[in-house]
Design a protein that fits this description.
The protein is of the alpha/beta class and about 325 residues long. About 30% of the residues lie in helices and about 25% in strands. It folds into 2 domains: about 170 residues, Peroxisomal Thiolase, Chain A, domain 1 (3-Layer(aba) Sandwich); about 150 residues, Thiolase/Chalcone synthase (Peroxisomal Thiolase, Chain A, domain 1). Bound molecules: oxa(dethia)-CoA.
Length: about 325
Amino acid sequence: MTNISAAITAVGGYVPEFILTNQILETMVDTNDDWITSRTGIKERRILKGDNKGTSFMAIQAAKDLIQKNNLDPKTIDLVVVATATPDMKAASTSAYTASEIGATNAFAFDVDAACSSFLFGMSIVARYIETGIYKKVLLIGADKNSSMINYEDRATCIIFGDGAGAVLFEPNQEGLGMQDEYLRSDGAGREFLRGTHGGSSNAITEKSLKEKNHFIYQDGKTVFKNAVFNMADAAVKILDRNNLDNDQVDWLVAHQANKRIIDATANRINLDPKKVMMNIEKYGNTTSGTLPLLLSDYESKLKKGDNLIFAAFGGGFNWGSIYLKWAYTS
Ligand code: UT7
């Protein structure tokens, strides 16, 4: 083991301009603002419009936001990882294109997909690259164009998901800041409850599957909800216990934004003051890999060097976990 830890040293974010409000959804499916707000906490979400614009469009904008705010020379970036469940295309990695478009010409790049836990698992991966001492600047981007896999006639999914992206830079730290501990888990028994069955390698898209809309995402919301509440909270408790942290020592809960009730349940389980719970679900809905870095981007000005952040996420697969990170700068 080295004494190098992986710290977040910069953040950026991007959401598309088009706002899909609950009021607009009322005209599309049998739902209403009261139901959506009370059951999920969501008021509006962003949707990426425009031909040929995929996840990379948002990943690039989020990365450029980080680069410009921090005067970063993109040629100094060693690695670009794009966490996404909605890559631009098959085979051609979204990250390689993203890296080239932002001018990270000395970097290698790859994608990570663990559904809504993609960014959380990505944090674990890039931390290992930094801890070796070999890589000095690693850009981790969480981006998803969920609107590309949503059936806007299905009220169980279309009310929750939105599009967006966030980016963070990881650098080595020798003051004990950055990544401290992680608890990550997967259970494939969960894949029946949140999935798009056609268009991947097991089932090709056919005329029949298109008619049945099986290329879109289906979720058994109740089962996903129950598992998310239990596992996200359980992972956060394990991380706190393992690190002898009590709730007073936690400065922020950075939880995946899928449903406000899931986030509240996690915060309650660790007895956390609601003021310490980052929340932007009302504006963006569930942006899958975008939720955690977009929270950091929105809350960056409130974060102080040394703050204890507890990350938590749960998503399709099932994949879930929690990460303990000490914030490395005051902006
Ligand atoms: O990122 C990880 C992946 N996703 C998640 O973590 C999402 C987890 N699940 C959820 O957030 C929630 O299950 C939903 C928001 C999807 C649904 O909320 P719920 O409280 O679990 O609702 P439900 O499916 O149990 O439905 C309750 C009632 C039903 O009516 P009846 O049978 O009680 O008369 C539904 O038909 O609400 C009805 N309903 C709706 N009503 C208005 C379901 N969806 C809607 C809707 N608008 N959009």
